[in-house]
Design brief:
The complex is a heterodimer of chains A (184) and B (219).
Chain A: E1 5-6, E2 16-17, H1 23-39, H2 42-72, H3 92-104, H4 120-134, H5 149-157, H6 165-171
Antiparallel strand pairs in A: 1-2
Helix pairs in contact in A: 1-2, 3-4, 3-5
Chain B: E1 10-15, H1 21-24, E2 45-47, E3 60-65, E4 76-80, H2 82-85, H3 91-103, E5 107-108, E6 157-158, H4 165-181, E7 185-188, H5 198-207, E8 213-217
Parallel strand pairs in B: 1-7, 1-8, 2-4, 3-7
Antiparallel strand pairs in B: 3-4, 5-6
Helix pairs in contact in B: 3-4
């Protein structure tokens, strides 16, 4: 049977608000009921049983579909959290140079630091390759400052620490009369 | 978008479709960014500024990320108009807009009764002279206990006011500028998720260090 919902029941009377049920089915239900009461025979019951069976079939179909959809969705597992510390590797210059030559072509030569990153596609591929390689990406706020490969080199030469100043202070050697409590 | 949240943990994630609508105060229909085909396995999403950029300024840039995988950061590069994403950091305008957003909807329903509205107090309690007590005209004057309030809140008061549209627009631009400058702005190509798991987004935000509160804006 199509779903009926009663909402807004006031003390004065019942206000039936039918959601998702076409009118014909709504009134046919009452028609069948009246008929059943009048005849008190087999007419009313058979119609009601048909409706119940079709409703059951619809329900099983719907259940099967949702189960299949749930199975089709991939179960993604979160990879382990990364720390934001970055220490520039020693062969940073050579890595950058090889990256430049791969993406911009080997026609660059000795002036690879002066290559301009104007073109969006080249800039994206270069910076994305570097970020995947070194595990550290240029943040959004400094992307527009990266005009030449020299700027990128300067950026990647700076180490980044994940600890806040307070954590550093607690970890460092403090004189015995200095205590830091930072509970948050 | 509402401006708020602690600075350390509030991130704004923009759905990428028509960013420069803000500059012109008109919502443009959805326009997918052009995908430039390259040799990579997936074409990077490169977005150019639709509106003309002044010749003296250059567009600001941001990575385009994707919500479809945990590690799908850097799906493309988006160019952002400098008039929206790198205006002057006008904190006064931002403050004005924040206070306006807080106050213009406010209706305070506080109301107190004055001496005229408090029940009783029409008759002079005792004659002017002769009783030895101080002179009074009614038992509901403000100096009496149980009397009316002289200068109390009077009825529902509305704090409605409208800042000029251009001020509000500038406030939005300043907010976006500040968020981009502090690395709390992330551009996303679309808001489609691979799973219907509600934990997916929280774990994604945790993995990408987006902060404790994330506002998703669909443009």
């Amino acid at each position: 049977m199509a779903a009926l919902s009663v909402s807004g029941v006031t003390r004065r009377g019942l206000t039936w608000i039918v959601l998702g049920a076409p009118r014909r089915e709504f009134w046919s239900r009452f028609r069948h009921r009246l008929w059943y009461q009048d005849t008190s025979g087999s007419f009313g019951t058979s119609n009601m049983e048909h409706e119940r069976e079709s409703a059951r079939k619809e329900k099983t179909l719907v259940v099967a579909e949702t189960v299949e959809e749930a199975k089709k969705e991939p179960i993604l597992v979160c990879p382990p959290l990364r720390s934001r510390t970055y220490i520039p590797p020693e062969d940073l210059q050579s890595r950058l140079e090889s990256c430049v030559k791969e993406i911009f072509g080997s026609s660059v030569g000795n002036s690879w630091q002066d290559v301009s990153l104007e073109d969006g596609l080249l800039k994206f591929s270069f910076l994305a390759r570097l970020a995947d390689d070194l595990g550290h990406a240029v943040p959004n706020s400094r992307l527009h400052q990266m005009c030449r490969v020299r700027d990128v080199l300067d950026f990647y030469n700076v180490p980044i620490r994940d600890q806040s100043k307070f954590d550093e202070l607690t970890a460092s050697n403090l004189p015995p009369n200095v205590k830091i409590t930072w509970g948050y | 978008t509402k401006v708020g949240g602690r600075a350390s943990s509030f991130t704004v994630v923009h759905g990428l479709q028509g960013l420069n609508a803000l500059a012109e105060e008109a919502v443009h229909p959805v326009a997918k960014p052009e995908a430039v085909v390259s040799a990579g396995p997936q074409a990077p999403v490169l977005r150019r500024c639709e509106l003309p950029v002044p010749a003296t300024r250059r567009p600001v840039q941001a990575w385009v990320e994707s919500l479809r995988g945990y590690q799908q950061e850097r799906v493309g590069l988006a160019e952002l108009h400098p008039d929206v994403f790198s205006t002057a950091p006008r904190m006064d305008i931002l403050h004005q807009v924040a206070i306006w957003q807080k106050n213009f909807k406010r209706i305070s329903y506080a109301k107190t009764k004055t001496r005229a509205e408090v029940k009783g107090g029409g008759r002079k309690p005792w004659p002017q002279k002769g009783s030895g007590r101080s002179r009074h005209g009614s038992i509901r004057s403000p100096i009496w206990r149980g009397g009316g309030i002289a200068h109390g809140p009077r009825g529902p008061t509305s704090y409605y006011y409208m800042l000029p549209m251009k001020v509000r627009v500038q406030g939005l631009k300043v907010a976006l500028t500040v968020k981009l400058a502090q690395d709390y702005l992330h551009i996303v190509d679309s808001l489609e998720l691979p799973t219907s798991d509600p934990q997916y987004l929280t774990e994604l935000a945790r993995y990408r260090h987006w902060g404790d509160s994330v506002l998703l804006v669909d443009l």
